[in-house]
Amino acid sequence: MPAQMKGISLIVGLGNIGSEYDGTRHNAGFMFADELASRSHAYFSEEKKFSAYVTRVELDHHDVWLMKPTTYMNRSGTAVQALAQYYHIEPEEILVVHDELDLLPGCMKLKQGGGNAGHNGLKDITQKLATPNFWRLRIGTGHPRTLGLRIQVVDFVLGKPTPEQMQGISSCIAAGIDCMADLADGNFQSAQRKRPNKPWRRLSSSVPACSVFLSAGTEKPFQGTTRAFSPSSCPEAAESCRSAPSARAGFPHRAHPVKSRQGTARTFCPEGLA
Fold first, then answer.
1. Sorting pLDDT into bands at 50, 70 and 90, what band is 223?
2. Comparing 202 with 154, which gets the higher pLDDT?
3. How many other CB atoms are there within 10 angstroms of residue 255's CB atom?
4. Is residue 28 part of a domain?
């Protein structure tokens, strides 16, 4: 019988400190941490020795550290390493909550390990912990190209989501918080089943005029073989797809493939697409 996995002892919400960053896409991790603290009636206090705002929350009778680094995004690892070393927390007991360009608003993914996909916060944490083997809760914000926007990525992530996109992000935060007790208990499979994702179903024949395409077999967008998915098989996303800027311009939406431990995932649900 396999040994019980250790539960999560430290939850890290990533973001940038400062009122100018409040409510931006890159602060999705901070939004998550604030909401979890609020629901747990917990209050953050600044701990300079950890370079972070920290508090404790009770999750299914487990006391878990909750952290918001004050180091700015690209030095988040300094804060995570300091608290983890002080309290002897292993990387496998750490959950990092962050914004994810490769997932659309309304989509999230819980995974352990993997690459950084250009996320500077994850990159620094990986370097400071000397391993990528911590858990990540990826909250989808979409990518400018998937949303039909002609702006630079840095301007996009430091910008605020539309009300429709914020609805999707908020739904992920709520669903993520609902699975925190399972994570504290070490019940990762149960937590992963609580994701709000509703997959697209692949078409076997005709492709409708407004389709969502997912590049298969590569982490780079718009390369490799494409697979078509029908909005009609996901009614709640169809209207969003039809009203999105790129759809109005006559272009199909595209998205990066999403890596998982089983390989490249080809399903996601674009709830809240705007």
1. very low
2. 154
3. 25
4. yes
Tokens of 216: 């298969």
Examine the domain organization and report whether 78 and 162 are in the same domain: yes
Q: Following DSSP, what letter does each residue of 204-247 receive, concatenated?
A: SS---SS-EEEEES-SSTT-SEEEEE-GGGSHHHHHHHHHSHHH
Span 28-57, pLDDT tens digits:
999 999 999 999 999 999 999 999 999 999
In the numeric block, the tokens 């858990």 are attached to: 135
Residue 26 a catalytic site member: yes
Same domain, yes or no: 61 and 185: yes
Please, where are the H alpha helices in 9-115?
28-39, 76-86
Distance, CA of 248 to CA of 258 (rounded, Å): 26
DSSP code for 144? T
Q: Give per-residue pLDDT as tens, 146-189.
A: 899 999 999 999 999 999 999 999 999 999 999 999 999 999 98
Q: Which domain holds residue 216?
A: 212-265
Among 4, 13, 27, 16, smallest CA distance to 161 is for 27
From 26, 119, 253, 256, the catalytic residue: 26
224 or 198: which leads in pLDDT: 198
Residue 206 lies in a domain: no
Nearest-angstrom CA–CA distance, 201 and 3: 36
Residues 163 and 249 in one domain: no
Asked if residue 108 and residue 150 are part of one domain, the reply reads: yes
pLDDT tens for each residue of 62-77: 999 999 999 999 999 9
Residue 202 belongs to a domain: no
Is there a single domain that holds both residue 223 and residue 142? no
CA gap 16, 34 in Å, rounded: 13
The total of structural domains in the chain comes to 2
